[in-house]
Amino acid sequence: KSGCYANTNMRLKLPITCFILEIILIILFGVLVEYDEETDAKKWHHSNHSQYDNDFYYRYPSFQDVHVMIFIGFGFLMTFLQRYGFSSVGFNFLIAAFALQWATLMQGFFHGMHGGKIHVGVESMINADFCTGSVLISFGAVLGKTSPVQLLVMAVFEVTLFAVNEFILLSILGTKDAGGSMTIHTFGAYFGLMVTRVLYRPNLDKSKHKNSSVYHSDLFAMIGTLYLWMFWPSFNSAITAHGDDQHRTALNTYYSLAACTLSTYAMSALTAHDGKLDMVHIQNAALAGGVAAGTAGEMMLTPFGSMIVGFLAGIISVLGYKYLSPILESKLKIQDTCGIHNLHGMPGVMGAIVGAVTASLATIEIYEVFPDVADNKRTASYQGAIQAISLAVTLGFALVGGLLVGFIMKLPIFGAPSDASCFEDSIYWEVPGDEGSHEGQLTTVKTEEFAKPEETEKLN
Amino acid sequence: KSGCYANTNMRLKLPITCFILEIILIILFGVLVEYDEETDAKKWHHSNHSQYDNDFYYRYPSFQDVHVMIFIGFGFLMTFLQRYGFSSVGFNFLIAAFALQWATLMQGFFHGMHGGKIHVGVESMINADFCTGSVLISFGAVLGKTSPVQLLVMAVFEVTLFAVNEFILLSILGTKDAGGSMTIHTFGAYFGLMVTRVLYRPNLDKSKHKNSSVYHSDLFAMIGTLYLWMFWPSFNSAITAHGDDQHRTALNTYYSLAACTLSTYAMSALTAHDGKLDMVHIQNAALAGGVAAGTAGEMMLTPFGSMIVGFLAGIISVLGYKYLSPILESKLKIQDTCGIHNLHGMPGVMGAIVGAVTASLATIEIYEVFPDVADNKRTASYQGAIQAISLAVTLGFALVGGLLVGFIMKLPIFGAPSDASCFEDSIYWEVPGDEGSHEGQLTTVKTEEFAKPEETEKLN
Amino acid sequence: KSGCYANTNMRLKLPITCFILEIILIILFGVLVEYDEETDAKKWHHSNHSQYDNDFYYRYPSFQDVHVMIFIGFGFLMTFLQRYGFSSVGFNFLIAAFALQWATLMQGFFHGMHGGKIHVGVESMINADFCTGSVLISFGAVLGKTSPVQLLVMAVFEVTLFAVNEFILLSILGTKDAGGSMTIHTFGAYFGLMVTRVLYRPNLDKSKHKNSSVYHSDLFAMIGTLYLWMFWPSFNSAITAHGDDQHRTALNTYYSLAACTLSTYAMSALTAHDGKLDMVHIQNAALAGGVAAGTAGEMMLTPFGSMIVGFLAGIISVLGYKYLSPILESKLKIQDTCGIHNLHGMPGVMGAIVGAVTASLATIEIYEVFPDVADNKRTASYQGAIQAISLAVTLGFALVGGLLVGFIMKLPIFGAPSDASCFEDSIYWEVPGDEGSHEGQLTTVKTEEFAKPEETEKLN
């Protein structure tokens, strides 16, 4: 029994993984990465620009909003678990800091090479944060059940596959997906669901009592929810074209989210026990409107269309939490801690379909959004078909990729926690006691018992 | 007795209200709303603009700051109550998401119509958030004592009256009030005070023990306070004219708030028990400087003038919390949970007066702020008189409106909580237990007893 | 014994200090401060600018990010203490609100005078927030052991010395230090360390049990950490030159922080007990990469160089927390509550050295960063030497200044808390009980016993 726990000790595993990964990153950055035209002193000054033409002023405020979503939004959204707050926000921090560096290389390799060098600037920063978001979505499915080393391994492969899928969609097929309904949400969700399927734990009910929230942990999670909700208009518009495109995308997303919030509250009260609102729904389903507007948000969706999309997304998402998640767990053995299928999976697919339909209805007036349509290289319905094909490609990459990466993550060397230690910070963190909390103290004592074997053995 | 409680069940009331409201919104948006010149692909591209001229780049960062104030600022400011955090942040979220959509229609109807259509863009988004802020101020007065359905009903009417009052001030009278000392703060405060007066509960002391904070709930509230404080310069400058006006307004507000903070700490230590600081004062009165600079902030108030305004606002606000609020409750039967009279009411009136005085002292140099003064259509003192009249109009609308809407909200069908269930999340939310908190568990048990009648009857 | 405690009563001390300081500020602002060309209605309109040329649009989003770092970042980072959250975030708020006003005057006096007047605008706001940051760093060293009056006294003197040191570096020596590795971090850290050395308490172990975190206080602290981490690119780039400089600085800092995060996690697991991560390291050392990129961030450091800097900064910082801090306390009697030596001291010195080396390697291509080098007035190696001399000057100012100011703060009239009352909110704040927390209630009772003498005497 003790050998089983000894594996979870991170004293060498985590440092070795982090150091190797970071040193590889530094070497590759040294060889491959250079400033782009807008960050390089010489290049920028030799060109005859007004300072304002620097893309920094068009995109940096949006970048910072996205950055907050990645670190505070995703990080705190997952702090709802009573005894996994350190890991939620802390592992989110770690894998995001890794993934954004790795994504810069992978995405740059596929569509940022200039004379053998990867060019970086504010747009690459946004794209790297986007790719990171996809990894964090997958993290939500396995939250509480994986070691930080497993998560870093997942990030290495998921970022790579993300970059390939994104390259096929955006560069080869000419798909439009500025807010990432497909590339970020659908991909991240189905990848993560497949990973958690492979990592299925039949005896997870051993830690069932910890897989729930306490009063203040739900309030911490609301910080994450609200930052995601507020900044989603910036997320969807961060890399759309300058001018009306950024403006329109932000506006559409704003209305989609507002409508989604009302349908979420309605459905939560309607479906939950005794007419009482369920924090899980509010924290998650109210965001589905942002996901569902990810593809069509930059198009001429209109506020009216956006609100319909958001309204339906909220309904679908709550229904998913209430009725579909239990079935996925019992029938398909998919243990989805955060319910990413309801927040990112179904709304992502919905967003892809909305995008395909909207694209196929495009008229000449929205020429700039679809350059190939504007140039008469493509018909609108052809573009719509491309959008639909892109969804299928994304689902394929996500499911096959998640399957393979799940098996890699399953290797015992990566130190997955035991079933009884899931959803528990104290196997990875020095955890202080609670002020006057007797049960809390008891918990601490208990988990120290679990930890004992690690201390006596110190194998690795 | 049980019938009384049964009314509070939200299983059907809340979904029906949300669905009806959202469907009406969607239909009206479909009929009435279209993109403005800066968000519409065709219109923007046919005009010969630089991308940078798009108002998005002038105002979107300010919009996001305002957005954070509405959802995080107001939402978390109200989480100070020990057992009402879910409702504070959650109902704030719900009514704000509704109000911003409804405000877009109401404000657009009065001053955004173009050929029978309401035009939307970043400026309408900011204005809708502003109007929403006014509703959330009123929410502060009735916090803990109203059902979400009552709050939605309040929002429907308050937004409408806000838009009428705003139209009279800004479009008919030519009043300047960019930061909303009158239109937002004075209106929202006196409207809310009148509503809570109508909803007076003589036996509110039954839930007195829950109408207070615990240690960590006060820290959550400080998140709200600080975001309001930090972003208030963006709030006051969000819709002022481009260039020096936005710049100056932000600067003035920054100094007003800084000075207000020092006088707030001073007065709190001076008046509170034993020289100890009172979190209620710090969380609220330190913000009064932003309210009081709402009208004159865009004028040539100077940093010196701004600091005097903020300094006095902090003093007045703390004195209000300490001495006036108890009198309002005992003599005038105004139960003002958050003390909005001290944070928004008195400082709002003060801001209106400061604006009137500053306007009447305006010289030609500030022509752009007062176009009619610049064009010699008005004298400065005439503008000052208009500003003063606008305060009276606003107070009239707020008090009469609040009176009427209060009576509507009193209808039993909207499911107000019983006196003993006030300031208690568990009648509206699934509330998890506290980690090792015995009193917390007791509370949960008790409130489930309250909830029992609802379960057995399930009338509606 | 009671006399000792009576001194800590703030009923008159704090109000008198706040009122005197604020009134002096208001008078000096009235005499000395006026709008600059970009905030003054007359001046801006008489010049022939596009609205977009107003510096507001170049810098205000960065200003707001810095503002969040000052009030939320620093404030919540220090809430990790179990019973000092009100003071951490509340005193941070107070002294920051004071310091930014005072800094405007002091910095303006040295480098913002135009015809006898101090000009203010968005750049002075950023600089004032920067100077405030330095004071808050010093606050971290004495956290829990000083009264708010002592902190205000410290701020008065520290801001003044900061402005003098900054003037010598930037204006006389021509040093480059846009992100303040020297002027902000090194200065604030060594100043604070000297102050805490002078205020050494041999019997501080009396309050040792309160000098630690609880579960949720560590989560609150993570809010501070993440906002500092996310917005550090804005901090370092806030006052660099428009265009590629701002862009490049943000980019460099982003990579430095990401690399620093991985080395921090690695070192924390490697050095901490049993391979478990230590929240103290994650909350603090992961930020060292931002500090260390403060000087060289605007130079052509390259992403590669930035990552190396961040990587090493994280390692040094964790080692400092683990091994150096205990030695500083036991051997040098430096009680550094937040470990500012590890987060700001060593990484600040490192940043200064990196800046000196990078400057000395500068070629003509980065002419704009070093105007004197570009104009052939200086060689690159001369600039490098100047950078190194600046570090020595800063250390001198900080150490001598901290020594003198420490002795001033030691005067009994400023009401330092007793050894047993350190790290305890309840001597300065009305503190509510905890929900069902028995130990919490006990603590409250105990501290009320401490407070008794104050109540009976009420001397001042």
Describe the structure.
- 3 copies of one chain form a homotrimer.
- The first copy, chain A, is mainly α.
- The first copy, chain A, has one domain (2-40, 56-430, 438-456): Orthogonal Bundle (Ammonium transporter fold).
- Chain A is 68% helix and 2% strand.
- Chain A has 17 helices and 3 strands.
- Chain A has helices at residues 2-6, 13-32, 41-46, 55-77, 85-111, 122-142, 148-173, 181-198, 215-237, 244-271, 279-284, 288-292, 302-332, 340-360, 371-374, 380-409, 438-457; strands spanning 33-35, 113-114, 117-120.
- The first copy, chain A, has a 3-stranded mixed beta sheet with strand order 1-3-2.
- In chain A, β2 and β3 (117-120) form a beta hairpin.
- In chain A, α5 (85-111) packs parallel to α7, α7 packs antiparallel against α8 (181-198) and α14 (340-360) runs antiparallel to α16 (380-409).
- The longest helix of chain A has 31 residues, at 302-332.
- Chains in contact: A-B, A-C, B-C.
- Chains A and C meet through α2, β1, α3, α4 and α5 of A and α4, α9, α10, α13 and α17 of C.
Quick structural summary:
The structure is a homotrimer of 460-residue chains. With 460 residues, chain A is mainly α.
Please give the CATH architecture of chain A.
Answer: Orthogonal Bundle
**Spatial gap, N to C terminus of chain A:** 16 Å
Overall mean confidence score, pLDDT of chain A? 90
Q: What is the CA-atom radius of gyration of chain A, in angstroms?
A: 22 Å
Number of strands of chain A: 3
N-to-C SSE series of chain A?
A: HHEHHHEEHHHHHHHHHHHH
Structural class of chain A: mainly alpha
CATH topology of chain A: Ammonium transporter fold
Oligomer: homotrimer
Instruction: Give unreliable regions of chain A as ranges.
Output: 1-6, 435-460
CATH superfamily descriptor of chain A: Ammonium transporter AmtB like domains
| Helix content percent band of chain A | 55-70%
